[in-house]
Amino acid sequence: MDSSDKNVYELGYLLIPIIAPEKLADEVNAIRALVESNGGLVLFEEAPKERKLAYEMSHDITGGRRAKYDDAFFGWMKFNLSADAVSKLDAGLKNNQSLIRYLIINLTKEGGDSNGAAEAKKPLGVGKKPKKTVSEKELDKEIDNLLDKTA
Fold first, then answer.
1. Which CATH class is domain 3-106?
2. Domains in the chain: boundaries
């Protein structure tokens, strides 16, 4: 299967904050290995950084207990992967006990190409004719008139 049969995805993830700094790279490597074992190719990634969460999140731990965290390590990666392999990746991520939450987004459907580059969008109003051009002097006069009415 060549890369033209694959979509571009982005995976954003939150890792539990109790991971020792020297073990953080191992956790990221495990996620990367899961993507690659399902036929994916990582294009870009950002190493996780500790972040304060907007709200407290709970996470299942061994023995049916739940831990609560108000901070986590946030990281992301973009990768190529076939659409039918995404469910396998999702199942593997669900089994990772270090992940609090994750989100997989299909960027190809969002206007990206097979290299992960997003399509440039036109700014609002581009291609529309302005209704009326106003000189700076006329604009200043109108502002003065409005200010006089409010005083």
1. alpha beta
2. 3-106
* Residue 40 contacts residue 79 (beta carbons within 8 Å): yes
Query: pTM (2 decimals)?
Result: 0.68
| Residues 6 or more apart whose Cβ sits within 8 Å of residue 62 | 97
Residue 12 pLDDT class (50, 70, 90 cuts): very high
Each residue's pLDDT tens digit, 67-98: 899 999 999 999 999 999 999 999 999 999 89
Amino acid, res. 115: N
